[in-house]
Amino acid sequence: MSRVKLLPEDTSRKLAAGEVIVRPASAVKELIENSLDAGAGRVVIELKSGGRDLIRITDDGSGMDRDDLRLAVHRHATSKLNDIDDLKKLHTFGFRGEALSSIAVVSRLRVETATEQSAVGTFLQVEAGEVKEVGDIARARGTTVVVNTLFFNLPVRRGFLKSDKYETKLVLDVVKQYALMFLDVHFALRADGEEILVVPKAGTLKDRLALFADAEVAENLVEFKIDNPMLVMSGCLLNPFSASRANALQQIFINRRPVRNRTITRAIYDGYGASLRGGNPSFVLMIETSPDKVDVNIHPTKQEVRFVDERFLYDFVSEAVRKTLGIERSEEIPAREVMFESSFLSGGPEAQQFWQLHGSFIFAQVQSGYCIIDQHAAHERILYEEVMKRTDRSPEQGLLFPLTVELTPEEFTVYEDTREDLATLGIQSKPFSGRTIVVEALPAGTSMTRDEIRDLFTDLAKLEKRSLHVREKLAEMVACKGAVKAGQRLTQTEMESLINRLFSCQNPFFCPHGRPAIIRITVDDLYKRFGRT
Ligand code: ADP
Ligand code: MG
Q1: Which of 171, 261, 333, 409 is least surrounded by CB atoms within 10 angstroms?
Q2: Residues 240, 322: contact at Cβ < 8 Å?
Q3: Domain that holds residue 373
Q4: Strand 42-48 vs strand 186-191: parallel, antiparallel, or unpaired?
Q5: Does 410 lie in the same domain as 368?
Q6: Ligand in closest contact with the CA of 77
Q7: Is 344 a residue whose pLDDT tops 60?
């Protein structure tokens, strides 16, 4: 018989800490935020083995005195919040007092710190949340936090970490985010003794972007700033002529926090409209507004935020993009709205007109005429956006009969390099023996044969710059291999579902390679063709 038991205090503390600190990158994010909250002008991050063995972050911020430091490593110790009402007015990153204490519980932590006033600095050593040693040290103003053997007492979590290369890349992404926002702070990142990012103080956002983006992207960025009583919005937008398919750098900040917000992303894509021609825009968008206009999900690891007035936000952002780039409001956007409202979702008699031609194209009547949808291109677009949205490696569609595939030596090397990325995109696999692998799950809604999976690796082996933007490339290939083919007959229900999913895509008009997925022919066009105007 099983009985309900209280978890030992020690275990529940570890579990709670593991919710805040998931991997090296989340520890680094919290520590950078603390440095920035302390007014640092210089933040240096060092990693060993992707942060697994060591994370060291040094800043020249305000530092802490001894009593504050002792308090800071305890749960719910914060210098930034006195009362729950303060939450709404918050302008610092931290306020929950959870980060440092959580890191302390799941690592061997050392903090060294000194303030301007203190004659002598303090070091403090904590292990699994227990303070082991406190003492004097000599150091300049600022703080150094050293996280040794993260998760040494949570072996399962430690085992769940991926390759050093991958963990380092996640940390790099975090550092870049803050570097885009805090132009007057010098950032540096070293991994296993190698300098992998140095970001000196920069004059403008464009200067800083030039360090991260491809030269072509950096040259074609347009800076803007728009004031409104509700919010101030500024940033950089990529000139649509150079919008690329992959390599897009997309970052949104609200009140100096990196966030995700679907309305804003949608508004940006719609602002660019047809000028994207199936590509993805690069942009950095910063919004400053009073904190009570934003509903920040106060779980520290979630980045999703909602605006109090999302409709206003959509109109404001899409209009700002058009104005900045001189783009006419494209007819496709109203067309999308018309289609949504008038036909597909109605399910009325018109919806039965879906008609498949040569097993390849779907005809659908819309208010202004009709649309022809390329079923393969449409499905590719849908899968591409779906797999790109995935962020974890939870299996989506386990295969009843796992597929074994034998790879060439070259393909096998590619496989080893890309296995983790493929897993996050929904292709779960493991090496079997020699160069044979077993594919256990595919992204939901796709079907792939053994040959198609092998083709995927053959194609990948041909890619030149494999290390960069591999995720977009992989997503493109997965979408292409997994999509319905020309010649495949679809039922009414399948056609309807395909079309509805296409129109909930960010960019429904083109496949990931930039070919049209849908064309519209209006009744007016037909009148013209028949000489009746
Ligand atoms: P929070 O940031 O939510 O307040 P943390 O656990 O991240 O909670 O930090 C606890 C406290 O420790 C902070 O409120 C701050 O006073 C102090 N602190 C942490 N890191 C630094 C740092 N790098 N420089 C100065 N003070 C720091
Ligand atoms: Mg903090």
Answers
A1: 409
A2: no
A3: 332-379+488-529
A4: parallel
A5: no
A6: 1
A7: no
